[in-house]
Structure formats: C-alpha cells, structure tokens
Amino acid sequence: MKQILIVSLIFLLSSCQESISKPNTQIDFDEKFKSLNLVLPELSDPVANYVHATHSDKIVYLAGKGPKQLDGTNITGKVGTELTWEEGYQAARIVGLNQLAVLKKQLGDLNKVKKILKVTGMVNADPAFTDHSKVINGFSDLMVEVFGEKGKHARAAVGMSSLPGNIAVEIEAIVETY
Q: 112-158 pLDDT, tens per residue?
C-alpha cells in the first residue's frame, strides 16, 4: 500500500511540475512589439571570435551588446559629460532591443523565455557620474514591459572608464528558458 501511495504521489508531483514549468498562454510578441512601438533590429555577425549567445540546458547566456541603432550606428560617449543619464537610459533600452533580437534568433520564439535571471550593465561613465542604476533601468524597464513579472531580474549596474568603440552602454544577461 505504501508503494502505491508513493508512486501515486510521485506521479501527481511530476504532473504538477510539468504544468508549472510550461507557459500557460502564448503571447503574440510581434503584436506586443507593435503595441509598444518597438522594432527589433536585424542581427549582424559578431565582430570577433565569439557568438551572440550560448545555450546550455535551459539557460541562455547573452554576450554583451552595445546600443546599436536601426541605422547601424552606435550611441557613443561618456554618460555624465557627453550624454545625460536620460540619453544613457535610452541607449540601454536600445541594448534591450538588441538582446531581444538575439533571444528570438536563439530560441525561435520568445514564448520560450521563462525568466530573465541576471543582468550585468556597464556604463561608459565620467568618474564623477554616480547614477549608473538609472541608466541601466532603461534595459530593466524594457524587459518588464515585454515579459511582465518574468522580466524582473537580479542586476549589477557599474561604471567603466571606457567601453569598446566608446559605446555608451554594454549589457549582458542570463535567461532561463522552458
């Protein structure tokens, strides 16, 4: 009798776990982007010996991306002298769009995103600038706009003395998938 009860309990728990681990509803992200007035960029090949993302089991590691705009140019300059924190915020939002394009290409469907786990945001900042978190909020706010609660994440927002090509912001992320 104990064995039957244990087997039944294991079956019940595994059934519950499966329903918890899969998304209940599918979002039409193309429509969502239209409603938010967002456009995902086309991805270009990496400029060195790395890839946009690696995928291990249910975790996607997104390489650091900069604020490449739709016209192919980057937002450059030091936040705090050449750029305001608000301009840095917008640059971080653009990085978010670039990372969403990477996720879509890597997964085939953004409905496979279970949770944005961890974000590391680097701000090309003047040494006197101290509002790094306000800048990286541009990325964080976009993730919550797109994914809701699944977009909330752990985060680091740090200042750097420089970034490649003088880009204003670089952000990498770790994402859990279904």
A: 999 999 999 999 999 999 999 999 999 999 999 999 999 999 999 99
Question: Distance between CA atoms of 117 and 125, rounded to whole angstroms?
Answer: 25
Q: What is the DSSP letter of 57?
A: T
Say if residues 140 and 95 touch (Cβ distance below 8 Å): no
| Phi, psi (rounded to 5 degrees) for 171 | -135, 135
Q: Which CATH architecture has domain 25-177?
A: 2-Layer Sandwich (3.30)
- pTM across the whole model: 0.87
* Domain extent listing, the chain: 25-177
- For the beta sheet containing 53-56, the strands, ordered from the edge strand earlier in sequence to the opposite edge, are 53-56, 59-65, 169-177, 113-124, 154-160
